[in-house]
Write a structure and sequence with these properties.
With 383 residues, the protein is an alpha/beta fold. The protein is 37% helix and 14% strand. The structure holds pyridoxal-5'-phosphate. Residues 82-84, 110, 112, 157, 161, 186, 188-189, 209, 221 line the site of pyridoxal-5'-phosphate (PLP).
């Protein structure tokens, strides 16, 4: 674990030489480690042609990395190409024995969770939404009301991509389990930034990807399913990599793997797996708890700066209710993002606010540059 962040890690990210990078919520910065992994993929391809055995080894290596990250067993983890792929497989396959048919989702969910849930209306399921409070945290009272004896599944995002709000996931799981419902946690904006222990949380399903705080690339995700549930879920969104024996090449029946591999589909995303292993190994070396501590200091510094210049946060102020993403209200989010980029401060727009996300490689100077950029463009701040 690295203690002198960000100095111990910063020079592995060429992008950071010139810019203050505040867009890890979209994609992590490229490290020399991940670039080398892509080069290794190309040379393995060049030297060996179609080294399937090596590639299967890599796919299993990434499964183990995801399992270690979540404190899960490798057999509880599917290697997917996106959050959407794993969640679609799961939702197509849950069949509660008591006929429950309602899905409860928070209004903080990523579009893919809303869209996959509403697609279930075509097979007779109902979807209920739980709103946010005016101070942009989750309405726990409304959540508790919505979870009833009809509820099959509750979907909760760990950290909202929309406004950076961090949910009390353990409490959501407690409420859902008390009412006999299962819980899907979308951890994409948390994994790599916040330590996640699926056993401690008691989560049923957890989905995420390698692209952001895990420093990998797009096209690689994971889907965790709690051991006891695996054989109860029979995905109809499936493919040959979900079969109990891939190499049998059987076309006569549906016999899904007894492990979480049943949530997989087609050929694994091999180049992204090379990159994902390198990214996750780097985050393992840095330490996720260490990253969380470092970033908590930076977000506190950022919030102080926002107060000083009179900027309005749309992320909850309480450090218990946010993670690495702080969003600031603007009158024109795209104009603000473009203006900041001119001064080498890279951010992203969402819902009329500018998103500033911080990671292990960000420095106090980066935060100063972010605040100075917002102050310079204060005509675009919404008060
Ligand atoms: C919270 C969250 N969930 C899901 C996704 C996207 O998922 P997928 O891997 O299906 O593209 C994102 C991407 O930004 C996200 O922030």
């Amino acid at each position: 674990m690295m203690t002198d962040l960000p100095n111990s890690i910063r020079d592995r990210f060429p992008l950071l030489r010139d810019v203050a990078y505040g867009n890890t919520c979209s994609q992590g910065a490229l490290s020399v480690n991940v670039r080398a992994a892509y080069e290794r993929y190309l040379s393995d391809w060049d030297e060996k042609g179609a080294p399937w055995e090596l590639w299967v080894e890599h796919a299993e290596a990434v499964r183990s990395r995801f399992a270690r990250l979540l404190n899960a067993e490798p057999d509880e983890v599917a290697v997917t190409t996106s959050v959407s792929a794993g969640v679609s497989a799961m939702m197509s396959g849950i069949r509660p024995p008591d006929g429950r048919n309602k899905i409860v989702i928070s209004d903080f969910e990523f579009p893919t969770i809303g869209q996959i849930s509403h697609a279930q209306e075509l097979v007779g399921r109902k979807v209920a939404h739980v709103p946010m409070t005016p101070d942009t945290t989750l309405r726990m009272d409304r959540l508790a009301e919505e979870i009833d004896e009809e509820t099959a599944l509750v979907c909760i995002t760990y950290v909202s991509f929309r406004n950076g709000s961090k949910m009390d996931v353990a409490e959501v799981i407690r409420l859902a389990h008390e009412a006999g419902a299962l819980v899907l946690v979308d951890a994409f904006q948390a994994v790599g930034a916040i330590p996640i222990d699926v056993k401690e949380l008691g989560a049923d399903f957890v989905a995420g990807g390698a692209l952001k705080y895990l420093l990998g690339s797009s096209g690689l995700g994971f889907f965790y399913c709690r051991q006891e549930l695996i054989e109860q879920v029979l995905p109809t969104v499936t493919g040959w990599f979900a079969d109990e024996d891939i190499f049998k090449m059987d076309i006569h029946d549906y016999s899904p793997s007894p492990t979480a591999r049943r949530f997989e589909a087609g050929t694994p995303p091999i180049p992204n797996i090379y990159a994902g292993v390198a990214g996750m190994d780097l985050m393992h070396e840095v330490g996720i708890a260490e990253t969380e501590r470092h970033v908590a200091g930076l977000t506190a510094q950022l919030i102080e700066g926002l107060d000083r210049i009179g900027a309005r946060m749309v992320t909850p102020r309480d450090p218990r209710n946010h993670g690495p993403l702080i969003c600031v209200a603007t009158t024109d989010d795209y104009a603000m993002v473009a203006a900041l980029a001119e001064d080498g401060v890279l951010t992203s727009p969402r819902d009329n606010s500018v998103r500033l996300s911080l990671h292990c490689y960000n420095s106090a100077e980066d935060v100063d540059r972010m605040v100075a950029g917002l102050e310079k463009n204060s005509h675009l701040l919404a008060r």
